[in-house]
Design brief:
By secondary structure, the protein is an alpha/beta fold. Helices cover 54% and strands 7% of the residues. It contains 14 helices and five strands. It has a five-stranded mixed beta sheet. Strand 4, helix 11 and strand 5 (314-319) form a beta-alpha-beta unit. Helix 3 (43-57) packs across helix 4 (78-92), helix 6 runs parallel beside helix 14 (356-374) and helix 7 packs antiparallel against helix 14.
């Protein structure tokens, strides 16, 4: 019997050799394409891959029972298949999927019954989950073979990956480079970042915008950023004090921490940050909130009072765009290096944190700015 890894590798080989659909009827093929292309929620395609792999590996399983809590002899751990095999597979082949399991998403993590067509998975968009359940039910009813659906799903992921990479290559080829002495003004770069942050599902971008600033000035400041935690990781899971942590070049202790908000910062947010610092017994000196929303005067006053109370920790609340604008004027000769660093960070992020369309928007915005600069 082939191992799960061997099943996936063989399915990938077969999928990559066929540009057209395999032995799948048109209606089912349309459903698979919808799940594979859905950028709003990538958990659906991970769920599909994990369950199809389990059924292909052990045909006696009931594909609708991916929870050992069900307790039946034909139930299984979909999360195990997802984490142990699908994760490595999608990373190795650069497939447009989340790098983390689908079974820890809110819609899937607290279930202990079979996933029938009538199961109400509370997730968005509802149609995505309904479609996945219909596909799985068709497999369980022997209307289609699990391996065929697995291959077809992978085929669509390969097509989507190649489409995205080709679009990205085309957009990148149209950009100027720092080496070619391309220069944009500070305000042009700020406008690019501001418009990018205004896009839907852009909550990861403020982290990357600030990280890029520290990345290009690390040697000058004598400070460095620690590796960024996963976008979906809570602070208690990653054991971090914020979204971005700064240390001295020769020291591992965090001295500055940034917490990003795409909403107004509140006094409760500041109190919660202080509680985190106390729990970790940190040597942190500077805790900075970066927000994309209006800052209340009362919050600024409260933040400024923290140092008088603690005599160790300074708390500040800054507007994201103004922070970037001031930074670029202070380090004016590094402004293009900053834009390059931000672009690199954005393009290298997992699709679960920064979607392919959001990456493409950045390149389009930069291309438009460089075109205006030529006029």
């Amino acid at each position: 019997m082939p191992t799960p890894d061997e099943i996936l590798d063989l399915a990938y080989l077969q999928a990559s050799q066929h540009s057209n659909q395999l032995v799948i009827d048109n209606a089912l093929q349309t459903q698979i394409e919808y799940v594979a292309r859905n950028i709003q929620n990538r958990a659906g395609v991970r769920l599909l891959l994990a369950c199809l792999l389990a059924k292909t590996h052990r045909p006696a399983l009931n594909i609708l029972k991916p929870y050992t809590e069900i307790g039946d002899s034909d139930s299984y751990s979909g999360r195990t298949y997802d984490e142990h095999y699908i994760t490595a597979f999608v990373i190795k082949n650069r497939l447009p999927c989340n790098n983390t399991t689908a079974f820890l998403t809110p819609a899937l993590r607290n279930i202990s019954s079979a996933l029938t067509r009538d199961t109400n998975l509370v997730g968005r968009p509802p149609r995505l989950y309904q479609t996945v359940l219909h596909i799985l039910d068709d497999v369980q009813q022997n209307q289609v073979d699990a391996r065929d659906v697995l291959v077809e799903t992978i085929r669509w992921l390969i097509l989507i990956r190649d489409e995205q990479e080709q679009r990205m290559k085309t957009l990148l080829s149209g950009l100027k480079t720092v080496e070619a002495d391309a220069q944009l003004s500070v305000e042009s770069i700020v406008r690019i970042i501001q418009q990018h942050l205004q896009q839907p599902r852009s909550s990861r971008l403020p982290v990357l915008a600030v990280a890029a600033a520290y990345q290009v000035t690390s040697e000058k400041l004598g400070e460095r950023i620690l590796p960024l935690a996963s976008h979906n990781a809570a602070d208690f899971q990653s054991q971090s004090l914020g979204d971005l942590e700064i240390t001295l070049l020769d020291n591992e202790s965090v001295i500055t921490s940034f917490e990003m908000k795409q909403r107004r910062v509140t006094i409760n947010d500041i109190d919660h940050a202080l509680q985190k610092i106390q729990r970790t017994d940190s040597e942190i000196q500077n805790y900075v909130f970066i927000t994309t929303e209006h800052i209340e005067e009362s919050v600024l006053i409260y933040a400024s009072s923290i140092y008088e109370t603690t005599r160790q920790i300074e708390v500040s609340v800054l507007d994201c765009i103004e922070f970037i604008r001031y930074f670029l004027h202070i380090f004016y000769r590094l402004r293009m290096d900053y834009l390059e660093a931000y672009q690199t960070l954005v393009l290298s992020e997992a699709s679960s944190a920064v979607s392919a369309p959001l990456k493409e928007v950045l390149l389009v915005l930069r291309q438009a700015a460089e075109s205006r600069d030529e006029e």
